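Possible regression after last week's pipeline update?

I re-ran a chain I had predicted before the update to compare outputs. Posting the input and the new output here so someone can diff against the archived version. Not blocking, just want to make sure nothing changed silently.
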Amino acid sequence: MSSARLEKVMVMLEFDFGYLKKLRKRKHMKQAEVGRYMHCTGASVSKIELGLCRLSVDDLARLANLYEIDDLNVFFVKRLERRN
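New output (post-update):
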């Protein structure tokens, strides 16, 4: 019998807050403009883009609508963690 070991790999999804900034820049918008759309301040948008503020599902949907994103999966990146 072979003594091959199976390695367990855990895949984690992380929200890519920086992608929000990239999308805003592509639309040539300022944080204050996005803030008006989101009913918050430009400073709040800055905190969201830096990952310093929680983002509700409703707010994410509003941002996706603003940036014309159909698939919310684009906001997530995979990170692999190996565990034995």
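Follow-up from reviewer: compared with the archived run. The longest helix spans residues 17-26. Marking as no regression found.
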